[in-house]
Amino acid sequence: MTPQQVTLVQESFAKIVPIADQAAMIFYDRLFEIAPQVRPMFKGDMAEQRRKLMAMLAVVVKGLSNLDTILPAASALAKRHVAYGAQAAHYPVVGAALLWTLEKGLGDSWTPDLARAWGEAYGTLSGYMMAEAYGHASAAE
After folding, report:
1. Rounded to an integer, what distance in angstroms lies between the CA atom of residue 76 and that of residue 74?
2. Mean of the pLDDT values across residues 83-108?
3. Residue 73: CB partners within 8 Å, gap ≥ 6?
4. What SS3 class is residue 28?
5. What is the maximum alpha-carbon separation in the chain?
């Protein structure tokens, strides 16, 4: 990611923070709409799950300017997700739901440059997480 892309992601996420719970609801509604097969993986309290999602996004967004600070947590998260039943094929679907949510939440602020920046951020992190969780060969499948 370029420094400009990092700044775009960080500044746009700051606009999402005030509507964090609403954004998380929109995200999970969209995720379950486009991938209903993942719904059974979420057995716990969805309010807590939404909080965890937004907290993790905040850590990741803050750490984009120094990825080494967030990679250990991303690795651990990826490995936990395997235990929950997550598969490499779920990562693109989650990314699509995230980008869709951001587009809805940011409205007119969502630009092609911002979409590319978020896509790059998600692609970088999800690629790393898939490699950590499933190995390099599985991540490419």
Report:
1. 5
2. 94
3. 59
4. helix
5. 39
* 3's tokens: 């420094």
Contact 33, 62 (CB under 8 A): no
The rounded distance, in Å, linking the Cα atoms of 33 and 29 is 6
Joined together, the tokens standing for residue 140 give 């490419």
Residue 54: per-residue pLDDT = 96
Whether 133 and 125 have beta carbons less than 8 Å apart is answered as: no
Kindly list the domain boundaries of the chain, sorted by start residue: 3-140
- Average confidence (pLDDT) over 93-106: 96
Kindly state the tokens that stand for 105: 């939440």
Fold of the CATH domain 3-140: Globin-like (1.10.490)
Instruction: Judge contact between 69 and 124, C-beta under 8 A.
Output: no
Q: How far apart, in Å, are the Cα atoms of 23 and each of 1, 76, 110, 135?
A: 24, 24, 14, 31
Task: List helix spans (H) across the chain.
Answer: 3-16, 20-34, 46-63, 71-84, 90-106, 112-140
The Cα 52–Cα 11 span in angstroms is: 20
Q: How confident is the model at residue 140 (pLDDT cuts 50, 70, 90)?
A: very low
Residue type, 23: A
Query: What single letter denotes the amino acid at residue 120?
Result: E
